[in-house]
């Protein structure tokens, strides 16, 4: 299977930086996605890594290292609205569909 | 632009009753469609995916089934609900098998 591990919960202060790690035990996947999910709502797409390295999108950046089997999501200049769960998912692209396997998610609590 | 709808938003059903959840996508044609379930405090689990009308792939054995009667309509059904079917059901779509998945607002199902 594709075990995907993320920390369950993290706490950070408004304005700070938080790094959410995602480790996986799988290979041959096509890419790695990060989604944000506020409580009671649907996940929204944040970022996608195909190649190793850093992808930057404003305050959010995502990094992938296939050789080391991990990814991280970096949230800068934290705002209160960033309090949410962050989901890591590995993707296998097949003709029959794009199969995403999700980790359990990391709940981030931003404190003033 | 594309939008995805799910209904109902919430549902409370007794054990043993049938289920029908609907998902529709607007603003695109021939999307890839997906059904996920998120049990309380757990990650997203892919249940079914479809690349076209009448084409359904199942990920996990269960008492649920899916159908795609029209290009942009995806239905999740059960003949007899179990307590363990409670959860947050999310429909998602993508342009193709290699594209980002976008989630609908979800249906929160409680089986009593």
Tag the structure with descriptive keywords.
heterodimer; A: 112 residues; mainly beta; 6-stranded mixed sheet; 5-stranded antiparallel sheet; 0% helix; B: 112 residues; 7-stranded mixed sheet; 4-stranded antiparallel sheet; 11 strands
Characterization of the model:
The complex is a heterodimer of chains A (112) and B (112). Chain A has no helices and eleven strands. Chain A has 112 residues and is mostly beta strands. In chain A, the strands form two sheets. In chain A, strands 2, 4, 5, 9, 10 and 11 form a six-stranded mixed β-sheet that branches. Chain A has a five-stranded antiparallel β-sheet with strand order 1-3-8-7-6, with no helix packed on it. Chain B is mainly β and 112 residues long. Chain B has strands spanning 3-7, 10-13, 19-26, 32-38, 44-52, 55-58, 64-70, 73-78, 87-94, 102-103, 107-111. In chain B, the strands form two sheets. In chain B, strands 2, 4, 5, 6, 9, 10 and 11 form a seven-stranded mixed β-sheet that branches.
Radius of gyration of chain B: 13 Å
Supply Rg of chain A.
Answer: 14 Å
Helicity level of chain A, as a percent range? Answer: under 10%
Please give the number of β-strands of chain B: 11
Low-pLDDT runs of chain A: none
Largest sheet of chain A: 6 strands, mixed
Quickly count the helices of chain B: 0
Name the chain pair whose interface involves the most residues.
A-B, 26 and 27 residues
Q: Roughly what fraction of the amino acids of chain A lie in strands?
A: over 45%
- Note the total helix count of chain A: 0
Low-confidence stretches of chain B: none
Distance between the termini of chain A: 40 Å
Order of helices and strands of chain B: EEEEEEEEEEE
| Gross morphology of chain A | globular
Q: Write down the overall mean pLDDT of chain A.
A: 92
Characterize the quaternary organization of these chains.
heterodimer
Could you state the order of secondary-structure elements of chain A as H and E?
EEEEEEEEEEE
Distance between the termini of chain B: 38 Å
């Amino acid at each position: 299977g594709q075990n995907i591990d993320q920390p369950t919960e993290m706490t950070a202060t408004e304005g700070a930086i938080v790094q959410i790690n995602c480790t996986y035990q799988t290979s041959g996947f096509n890419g790695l996605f990060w989604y944000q999910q506020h409580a009671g709502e649907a996940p929204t797409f944040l970022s996608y890594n195909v190649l190793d390295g850093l992808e930057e999108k404003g305050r959010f950046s995502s990094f992938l290292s296939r050789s080391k089997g991990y990814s991280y999501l970096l949230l800068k200049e934290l705002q209160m609205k960033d309090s949410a769960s962050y989901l890591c998912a590995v993707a296998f692209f097949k003709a029959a569909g794009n199969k995403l396997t999700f980790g359990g998610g990391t709940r981030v609590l931003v404190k003033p | 632009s594309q939008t995805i709808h799910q209904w109902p938003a919430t549902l409370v059903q007794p054990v043993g009753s049938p289920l029908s959840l609907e998902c529709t996508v607007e603003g695109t044609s021939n999307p890839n469609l997906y059904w996920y379930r998120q049990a309380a405090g757990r990650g997203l689990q892919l249940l079914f995916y479809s690349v076209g009308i009448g084409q359904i792939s199942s990920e996990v054995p269960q008492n649920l089934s899916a159908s795609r009667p029209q290009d942009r309509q995806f239905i999740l059904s059960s003949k007899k609900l179990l307590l363990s079917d409670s959860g947050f059901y999310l429909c998602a779509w993508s342009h193709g098998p290699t594209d980002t998945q976008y989630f609908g607002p979800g249906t929160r199902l409680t089986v009593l």
